[in-house]
Design goal:
single chain, alpha+beta, 2 domains, 3-stranded antiparallel beta sheet, 5 helices, 6 strands, binds zinc ion
Length: 149
């Protein structure tokens, strides 16, 4: 590593430790040319995940957007906030584990619906009606009927 003081590329690591809950490694280095010390950090390179929307545009994948969508669907439903939070966490980890750099919004929507259906049917139908954009009212009612049966 090039020394920030003298510019020489000649140093030794004098201390290495995990920081930020293990998400980074901090190294104290000593320049062997001028004797001064400096710090470097090492992080895993993360490519930001993008969501492909229906119109083909992309936007960054954000946990908060998923949470907002679910909170809207669960409005005034007797569902503890922690259950919603853990549902969101599950969806985020499933989507991250796909290991892709771009994911269709449809896939995220399906993952949410799968879990929401188990959690609360009313919220599920509300969410599904927005995400699936039921082609007509008949289709929507059919879905409702399926739930009750
Ligand atoms: Zn130096």
């Amino acid at each position: 590593m090039k020394c920030p003081y003298c510019g020489d590329d000649n140093d030794r690591v004098i201390d290495t430790r995990l920081v930020k809950d293990g998400e980074a490694i901090r190294r104290r280095r000593e320049c062997l040319s001028c004797g001064r010390r400096f710090t470097t950090y090492e992080y895993i390179e993360k490519t930001p995940l993008l969501v492909i929307k229906k119109d083909g545009t992309r936007e960054p994948f954000e946990r908060d957007k998923i949470l907002q969508g679910i909170l809207t669907a669960c409005h005034k439903r007797p569902i503890p906030r922690e259950k919603i939070e853990s549902l969101v966490d599950e969806v985020v980890s499933v989507v991250s584990d796909l290991g892709k750099t771009e994911v269709e919004s449809r896939i995220i929507g399906e993952e949410i619906m799968k879990r929401l259906k188990e959690l609360d049917e009313i919220s599920y139908v509300r969410f599904a009606s927005v995400y699936r954009e039921f082609r007509d009212k008949k289709e929507f009612l059919k879905e409702l009927k399926n739930l009750k049966g």
